[in-house]
Automatic annotation (TrEMBL):
GO terms for biological process: DNA damage response; intracellular phosphate ion homeostasis. Keywords: Hydrolase, Manganese, Metal-binding, Signal. This is Sugar phosphate phosphatase. Its cofactor is Mn(2+); Ni(2+). InterPro entries: ARMT-1-like_metal-bd_sf (IPR036075), ARMT1 (IPR039763), ARMT1-like_metal-bd (IPR002791). It comes from Antrodiella citrinella. Its EC number is 3.1.3.-. GO terms for molecular function: fructose 6-phosphate aldolase activity; fructose-1-phosphatase activity; inorganic diphosphate phosphatase activity; metal ion binding. Residues 139-542 form the Damage-control phosphatase ARMT1-like metal-binding domain.
Amino acid sequence: MLNHIVGGRLFAVILKFKSTLAFSGPPNDGTTSTRVPSFPRTTTIPDSLHLSLPVRNNDGENESATCIFDIVVSCIVMKNINDPVVGGIPVKRLKLSNLPAKHDFKMTFPRTPGSIDPNNPPWPAYRGYHTYSFANATMGHRLPTILGKAIDDVVYTLNEQSDEDLIVDLVQCIERMDSLKSELQEHAKLRPIIDDGEADVALWNKAIVKYFRGKDFMNAPWLFAEAYKYRRLRECFSVSKYWSNYDVFFRQKCDTFSRSNEAVFELSGRFGEPFKHAENLSSSEKAESLRLMFLELTQVCLWGNSTDLSLLINMTEEQIKSLQSTGGEALAETEKNILGNHMSRLWEVVRDLNKDSVNTGGGRIDFVLDNAGFELYCDCVYADFLLQSGLASEIRFHGKRYPWFVSDVTRKDWAWLLNSMVYGQLFPKATEQEKEGLKRLGLRWKQYEKEGKWIYEQHPFWCTGYTFWEMLNEAPDLFLHLSKSDLVIFKGDLNHRKLTYDCAAPYSTSFDVSIGPMASNAGAPKVCSLRTIKSDVVVGLGSNPQEGDAIGENLDKEEPGWKISGKYAVVLLSEGRPGEQVNLV
Ligand SMILES: [Mg+2]
């Protein structure tokens, strides 16, 4: 439709909304563009207009939306627009001052359950375009750096190859990684995942189409965008012919474990021998010594989470060693830094597993793992104690199907750790006694696997961008499986972000409220989060709202960066609704 207007002014044009809305974050200068094109006195009217309008997103924040309108010319009046009378009829002109007063748009949080979805968490989401936030630093700086290091690793591997087919195939992997890095830096839109045969393709693409169409790396919630980057990295290799199982982070993971020798031998020296009580102890003394050992090892397992490669890219060896210190005095000191501390309740839950399990003598405990290497080693020391003490009879470890958030455990990492302990030569400077102690520990753990007391699993849901609020809907088999556990221990920062929907909940929000359906669904297991704090979401502080919020706000004032340093931690427990029938509607 083309129309010419000559010698008059366009009086009435109906703009018909066409259908496409594309949202983007605020422009860099903090302004929004709302210029409507003006026409000269002789002009050709285009078929459609593309207008950039300021809008509020669902968190009440400013974004801009590109709206496309069809232009339908309904009436063209060749008279002066200022005429008070048109066709003999007085025209009452619209006065903007007659419009209702403009009020500030305010969202109320938390959102009601029916209005929560992956793009709209219960409290405002963290997004990459929040300037000066950790989300912004991660999406804008940390992830491109991690990707750059990953490319270096592949280049190193490439230079070791001699077979042409392998070389050509690997070069294509590098080209795909380069493209991904450019997309990340240019804030490209999130495209669907290619069908590479992975079990999670449908889960990913459903989320992208349903909740994140038109979103890019910076304006999608940080949690989803960051997870998406690791899925795209997986795709760089999964579509290749020869390198589909290549792990770009494997060298880093192995290297950090072999540099953790002091803490590794400290633990194998103390816990290498099978657990037994000292002689001549009364039953109450035995119970007390068991309790103290449980509390100590819970802290070992907790602080083992400090060494997360995705966050330690610039840390020195000395700094890593001090983080890994597991001595009694160090633990007493670090307990002060556990800001939300349910350890004594956790002990009561674990202690009662032995009492409640009539047939098996001990319950089932699941670990949803975080990092490979030293942290996994600490998790296994803890799990070993739980088994030997009779508190647990079966431990299930849940890892990732492919390389994830740099240092997360894959099946290969799991096997590497156990076999390196038994057969490896990672610690040439260690004494014969130290090597022997480590080997004995490794052999015992491998035996647990053979006997089915330790089971390693890797459900596809763990490598998606969904939070655990959606587990029952998106992975009902996994929820059902976990509902049969006596206690599910979630390790680390990413699991905590997924439990709590990674949103700006107040510091005093109770753990039960912040994990939503994982606490309130029928059949929800007892859940414990062992997490050193390395990102924005912090909940479960204090025993009342005033106290909890004050703890966090004081730290905000006095110790900027406290939420990303790994110095502070939480040990939080939800009782769930175990034993009730899971509702699989
Ligand atoms: Mg991790």
